[in-house]
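Task: sequence design from structure.
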């Protein structure tokens, strides 16, 4: 049996989620981790676990998206991957990051409005999953 692949729904939910919680940035030091505790996949797996395939989880969803699949998919839709070797970066983030992206901050009013609007869109498009 070959490796399981994520379903189109899992891939679409994950892609939309990544574009809801992060936005492009012109600031060179803005980045989002591709792996670890500070990654998009980690947040997604906590908020919408139905679409994720987390290795070691006893209830692993074979049609969910894995961290590697998500990262490859995000690169294919325009997220820019860069290698960074700076001591100021949390070691759990690794050395490969998505560059020129930032997390939306719910404490900032404009970001909070954008997050709310994005999650409503996610609920409308995928009501059974969210």
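Answer:
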């Amino acid at each position: 049996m070959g490796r399981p692949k994520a379903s189109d729904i899992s891939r679409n939910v994950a892609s939309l989620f990544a574009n809801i919680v992060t936005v492009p940035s012109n600031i060179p030091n803005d980045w989002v981790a591709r792996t670890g505790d500070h990654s998009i996949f980690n947040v997604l797996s906590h908020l919408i676990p139905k679409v994720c395939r987390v290795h070691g989880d006893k209830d692993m969803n074979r049609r969910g998206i894995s961290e590697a699949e998500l990262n490859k998919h995000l690169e294919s839709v325009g997220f820019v991957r860069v290698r960074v070797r700076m001591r100021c970066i949390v070691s759990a983030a690794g050395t490969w990051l998505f560059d020129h992206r930032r997390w939306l901050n719910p404490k900032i009013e404009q970001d909070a409005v954008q997050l709310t609007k994005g999650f409503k869109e996610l609920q409308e498009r995928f009501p059974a999953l969210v």
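Strands lie at 22-24, 31-33, 80-83, 96-99, 101-103.
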